[in-house]
Specification:
The protein has about 280 residues and is an alpha+beta fold. The chain has three domains: about 110 residues, Nucleoside Triphosphate Pyrophosphohydrolase; about 30 residues, no CATH class; about 120 residues, Nucleoside Triphosphate Pyrophosphohydrolase (Alpha-Beta Complex), CATH 3.90.79. The protein has four helices and 18 strands. Strands 12, 13, 14, 15, 16, 17 and 18 form a seven-stranded mixed β-sheet that branches. It has a four-stranded mixed β-sheet with strand order 1-6-7-2. Strands 3, 4, 5 and 8 form a four-stranded antiparallel β-sheet that branches. The two termini are about 20 Å apart.
């Protein structure tokens, strides 16, 4: 999965740090990221690429995390008056699905998640005053009323529903491939409650033997995906209840469509079912 970057080590501990020329930086504009074009490849730019603008860029740079000894920063373009040399372009963040090496994919999409949070926490949600960065933790603080805003992470479940030698998958209008049932956790729910509710709300089925598999930070949507396997309980008739779903049906294990990629927990879980290994996952 995208976060599986071993032997590299991700360190998200908060600290205040001044960038070095050898450090990476990100400049985002919505869902676009600045990249350096070299030999037909997309590269993450280094501060050494913009040394003529060093004072302005250094002041506008915010340390976000490190991987091994490589430090990564966000640069607030509105505070850094940069005229980039030729050879740079804005690309959609979808490139982080294919960027090599893989640890830079994870770095890029995680940086974008933090960028969105900083953008969305510019003003206090309580009194409307401008927020400032905390000096002791990764948080935004209102100097007027003291409200503290932390990076937002939305928990969601994803579940592989099986019945004998069949797996249920669905697809919606925004995604052309069949995938697993997923949904956000609502207030007052356990993860298991969410599994039962989402499955019934989306496809009208009941499940039993719900068992935890593993979790994944999925920064493309700012979620923490929590994966489960579950067995059909009773009638197998699929009734589409969610207007976003176009189709949902049972697939025999031998006809499960090939995985699109191996970045997401969804694709990994589908592969686990295809290989009949989901029966080894027991209730914890």
């Amino acid at each position: 999965m995208i976060q599986d970057i071993a032997p590299h080590r991700f360190n998200n501990a908060f600290k205040i740090q001044t960038p070095l020329y050898s450090d990476h930086f990100f400049i985002f504009r919505g869902n676009q990221v600045l990249v350096k074009k070299q030999g037909g490849e997309n590269l993450l730019p280094l501060f050494s690429d913009i040394t003529p603008y060093w004072p302005e860029v250094s002041d506008a740079a915010r340390y976000i995390f490190s991987i091994d000894k490589e430090n990564f920063f966000l640069v607030d373009e509105s505070q850094a008056n940069i005229v980039l040399p030729s050879g740079y372009a804005l690309e959609n963040i979808a490139l982080f699905r294919t960027l090599e090496p893989q640890y830079l994919r994870f770095a890029g999409i995680t940086a974008h998640q933090l960028y969105l949070w900083y953008e969305q926490s510019a003003f206090c949600g309580r009194c409307g005053q401008p927020m400032t960065d905390s000096t002791i933790e990764r948080a935004r603080v209102c100097p007027e009323c003291g409200y503290i805003n932390y990076p937002r992470i939305s928990p969601a479940i994803i579940v592989a529903i099986t019945d004998g030698q069949r797996l249920l998958m669905a697809k919606n209008s925004s995604y052309k491939h069949f995938a697993l049932i997923a949904g956000f956790v609502e207030f007052g729910e356990t993860f298991e409650d969410t599994v039962r509710r989402e499955i019934y709300e989306e496809v009208g089925l009941r499940v039993k033997n719900i068992r935890y598999y593993k979790s994944q930070p999925w920064a493309f949507s700012g979620t923490e995906m929590v994966g489960f396997f579950a067995d059909l309980d009773g009638d197998d008739t699929v009734t589409l209840r969610d207007h976003e779903l176009q189709e949902a049906r049972w697939f025999a294990y031998d006809e499960i469509p090939p995985s699109v990629d191996h970045l997401s927990i969804a694709q990994e879980m589908i592969e686990v079912v295809r290989q009949r290994r989901h029966t080894l996952v027991k209730n914890s």
